Amino acid sequence: MEKPYLVIEWNDTETDATGWLVIHNFVKGYTSGGIRMHPQVTRQEVEHLAKTMAYKYVASESTTTGGCKGGIAYDYKASDAKEVLRRFVIAMMPYINSDTTDVSASLGEDLGTSYHDVLNVFKEFDFDLPITKSMKQDETVQKGINDYNELLKTKIDGLFLDHAVTGYGVAFSADEAWNLKGGNTNARVVIQGFGSVGASCALKLEQLGYKIVGISDANLLVTCPEGLDVNKLIESKNEYGEMDQASFEPHYVVQSNSEWLDVDCDIVIPAALENAVNGENAHKIKVDLVVEAANNPISKEGDDMLREKGVDIVNDFIANLGSIRFYDAILFGLIEPETQAVIDDIDTLCRKNVRKLFSEAAKKQAYQRNIAKQLFKPSISDTPGPEKSMPL
């Protein structure tokens, strides 16, 4: 299962946008992942992300869903970005809402896209969420869809629940790993990326007693050795996760966003693009714990350097599974449809996976990423077809 099951390329007829839907595997005819929009998106990146999603569903203990990903090479800040996204989703509609085979690719948000915008396209085609024909006949799933839609309206700590769950899961993972390492209290954290994942991760870590001493976004890096006011920074940021420098405290220091690895800290959390840590900057990392909030944020060259330096890693498909666990747990009725129940479930699962990861790595004296790939390797790839209709 190293190669994707299906790769579909799309070329927009109205702009120069190009996009891909990559299905790594189906489980019971179902596969799921977000849509990423960014000028630098490539087919190779989308294939890599779809594979990561397959691992992530195993780590989230799903028995119902495989991994897929959508990617659009286009500027998500462009005035017509929503129209480009709409045309991409419509082009992929035969794989999202099929009436000929009992399969479905469920697409949501990722970097540069909004789940609300994706849902609006689904509603144009008279359905709420992409599901298979078998799922449409399942009363538990039908109830789960309604419960999920209601939970999307709820908030926790001032954030919409679906904007909080992934970042909170990263924070729980980082906290568990730091505790296992016997780390000191009031540990200092630097977060690269301040979208919904980076912001919610920063907020939860602050609540857990950590000092957020540096945050970078697309424009700048802001630092403060005594700790940044995360709530105030969240209130000031725009829809793209960019902070408003005019709202910074006078004692905050503003630097180039390329200097985020130069900040003195204990834990580094990359929460933005792929390969943010790479062969050119990995030597700057002086911490001994990196927690991946973004998907694939460390290149192979960067990873080799961190392994040689003895840096501990909590990799992406363990740390940032909050969103897909939320979706799966509610859709398939695994937990009570309550806001705190969702958070508690993610907390429990992330910490359990981190303990398993560190225990196995210590036992085998091996790098955490290699152990994670062994522990959570996908083993199911169902072949779609009309005869493959399976009960859940």
TrEMBL record:
InterPro entries: Aminoacid_DH-like_N_sf, Glu/Leu/Phe/Val/Trp_DH_C, Glu/Leu/Phe/Val/Trp_DH_dimer, Glu_DH, NAD(P)-bd_dom_sf. Keywords: NAD, Nucleotide-binding, Oxidoreductase. The keyword Nucleotide-binding applies. GO terms for biological process: L-glutamate catabolic process. The record marks 110 as: Important for catalysis. Pfam families: ELFV_dehydrog (PF00208), ELFV_dehydrog_N (PF02812). SMART domains: ELFV_dehydrog (SM00839). NAD(+) binds at residue 166. Residues 158-383 form the Glutamate/phenylalanine/leucine/valine/L-tryptophan dehydrogenase C-terminal domain. The active site is at 69 (proton donor). Substrate binds at residue 56. GO terms for molecular function: glutamate dehydrogenase (NAD+) activity; nucleotide binding. Belongs to the Glu/Leu/Phe/Val dehydrogenases family. PANTHER family: GLUTAMATE DEHYDROGENASE, GLUTAMATE DEHYDROGENASE 1, MITOCHONDRIAL. This is Glutamate dehydrogenase. It comes from Lentibacillus cibarius.
